From TrEMBL:
<dbReference type="InterPro" id="IPR039069">
    <property type="entry name" value="CE7"/>
</dbReference>
<dbReference type="InterPro" id="IPR029058">
    <property type="entry name" value="AB_hydrolase_fold"/>
</dbReference>
<protein>
    <submittedName>
        <fullName>Acetylxylan esterase</fullName>
    </submittedName>
</protein>
<dbReference type="Pfam" id="PF05448">
    <property type="entry name" value="AXE1"/>
</dbReference>
<dbReference type="InterPro" id="IPR008391">
    <property type="entry name" value="AXE1_dom"/>
</dbReference>
<feature type="domain" description="Acetyl xylan esterase">
    <location>
        <begin position="2"/>
        <end position="314"/>
    </location>
</feature>
């Protein structure tokens, strides 16, 4: 069933933002601290049995200088710099295996897949530890890890890793540093929205069914995980509600959206209980840059799936023609 407002109301939905006074200073300080560590990006070519692509096992220094894993996959015929999609991953997923990420190399692009620290389920295994445990109480998952202090919060580390992943991709000679697109769905979509606000000069952002947007409303209208992790946490930590949301405001996609000038394509499923439509439209309607959104009325958290990928490929062809 449709789980949110009618579409005509969603298109005009522009809720007030809860923006911390130190939002910009917090993120400027965070990235300055991260860049004190050498990027130290290492690309090791590996034999995957995929004869039409070349695959590199990547390690680079993310938040705190911590090693973060990834894949760089390029067409085997590549001889010069290619446009590159930097791909971020959904909640509890890891970088998986190279054959999970062949769409963009098949289109003639490079793809740089960033592992998500401390995540990686059985379906999409990960290879990156999160050596920071966070402080204070939490419930299982990542959403409440360090949530009592913006400086300790898990997503400070993940979004910083996302920025450093762009820098790592740009450092490779087979990647055209001026032709970078960031992409992801759910948690990956939220990461793409944050990174595209924090990194200048990106060509496009593909932001699918983004998580971590309009978080206060999400917690009010869905019982689905991962937002339900916050609800379970606050059921027992009743006295911490204001403190928790003060932290989350530093990571809310609507605040990144209001600063974002990277051209973007969004997607939303009107039956999505995981990232409810109004939370997606809140970010989309506040988005300051050139934008479009694909609305999938009968879809849930998968959004447009392969149809959305086709729309992204169409934009990618346009970007290639413009670059040429």
């Amino acid at each position: 069933m449709f789980i949110d407002m009618p579409l005509d109301q969603l298109r005009g939905y522009l809720p007030p933002r809860h923006e911390p006074a130190d939002f910009d200073a917090f993120w400027n300080r965070t990235l300055e601290e991260a860049r004190k560590h050498d990027l130290d990006a290492v690309f090791t070519e590996v034999d995957t049995g995929l004869s039409l692509v070349r695959t590199y096992d990547v390690t680079f220094a993310g938040f705190g200088g911590h090693p973060v894993k990834g894949w760089l996959i390029v067409p085997a015929s590549a001889t010069g710099p290619l446009p590159c999609v930097v791909q971020y991953i959904g909640y509890n997923g890891g970088r998986g295996t190279p054959h999970d990420w062949l769409l963009w190399p098949a289109a003639g692009w490079a793809v740089f897949v960033m592992d998500s620290r401390g995540q990686g389920g059985s379906r999409m295994p990960g290879d990156t530890a999160d050596p920071v445990g966070g402080t204070g109480p939490m419930v299982p998952g990542r959403l409440t890890l360090g949530v009592l202090d913006p400086g300790d919060y898990y997503y400070r580390r993940l979004y910083t890793d996302g920025v450093r992943a762009v820098e790592a991709a740009r450092s490779h000679p087979l990647v055209d540093a001026a032709e970078i697109v960031v992409a992801g769905g759910s948690q990956g979509g939220g990461t793409a929205m944050a990174v595209s606000a924090l990194v200048p000069g990106l060509r496009h952002a593909f932001i699918d069914v983004p998580f971590m947007t309009h978080i206060r409303r999400a917690c009010e209208i869905t019982d689905a995980d991962p937002y339900a992790e916050l609800s379970r946490f606050l059921q027992t930590q009743r006295h911490l509600v204001d403190q928790v949301f003060a932290t989350l405001d530093h990571f809310d996609g609507v605040n990144f959206a209001a600063r974002n000038t990277t051209p973007a394509l969004f997607s939303v499923g009107l039956r999505d209980a995981i990232t409810p439509p109004s939370t997606v439209f809140a970010a989309y309607n506040h988005y300051a840059g050139e934008k479009d959104i694909k609305v999938w009325p009968f879809n849930e958290h998968e959004g447009g799936a392969s149809a959305q990928a086709a729309a992204q490929l169409a934009i990618a062809r346009t970007l290639r023609r413009a670059a040429d």
